[in-house]
Automatic annotation (TrEMBL):
Residues involved in Zn(2+) 3 binding: H180, D227, H229
Chain positions recorded as Zn(2+) 1 binding sites: H66, H106, E142
Example of a GO MF term: DNA-(apurinic or apyrimidinic site) endonuclease activity
Reaction equations catalysed: Endonucleolytic cleavage to 5'-phosphooligonucleotide end-products
Job of this protein: Endonuclease IV plays a role in DNA repair. It cleaves phosphodiester bonds at apurinic or apyrimidinic (AP) sites, generating a 3'-hydroxyl group and a 5'-terminal sugar phosphate.
Keyword set, alphabetical order: DNA damage, DNA repair, Endonuclease, Hydrolase, Metal-binding, Nuclease, Zinc
Protein name as catalogued: Probable endonuclease 4
Positions annotated to bind Zn(2+) 2: E142, D177, H214, E259
Amino acid sequence: MYFGAHVSIAGGIVNAPLNANLIGCEVFQFFTRSPQGGYVAPLNKKIAAEFKANCKKTKQREWYIHAPYFINFASANPRIKHTSIHVVREELERASLLGAKYLMTHIGSFKDLGETKGMTQTIAALNETLKNYKGKTQFLIEISAGSGKIIGDTFEEIAKIIHHPKLKKYKIGVCYDTQHGFASGYDIRDPKAVKNTLDKFNKIVGLKNLKMSHCNDSKTEFNSHHDRHAHIGEGMIGTNGFQSLLSDHRLKNTNFILETEPDQVTDDLKILKNIRKKYVT
């Protein structure tokens, strides 16, 4: 069980592991491009080699890439759908070049097409995205907070995608976000709640498919369906919730990435490491 945070690539991707090391990361996450779209910095073997050398120098165990925020496989706009397919596939190739373990993304929203047509299009689009992909970076779906018609806010919806007959051959994994899950009605505030949530996840999705987790407290109430991250111990999940979650033996090999504001992310990492020292066996 290792801890890290989402870090900046200001000045170039090669700086990401250096930025991660500065705040005490053991693993880290980053964007390879602007999450809102626009210019995409070129990536080649020379840059990748320098990036990996910096990862080795700073003793980072693993690193992960988050896809841009504009992805929507269920869009009624063909341009948005095809851009989503192209960008996620391109990000998988870039991630593989950089040696990233996982690439995670949100899937999009059913608001245009409705759930039935939207799911059909999403399955087809993901199939097109992953078809003939030979890279080593594994593709993950991130659980959503559930605002509006967002896709992937329930275990059932995630399972419907990753276990679909057209997609199961790709071995799509899951990135669990503690705040998104909490906002979507999956409680982790005490040991009993953690057990119930992980039991349910295992029954519906399969814990073997849980590859990593984003580790964020929640500014909003349980089952609020709002995506609002808080520093560890300053939200509605609370320190006891994270102690309960991290001490569940089923997560002993799961790595956690903070997506909290930079002002206190170093403190958040220290809190998580302290919990690991005291409660994780």
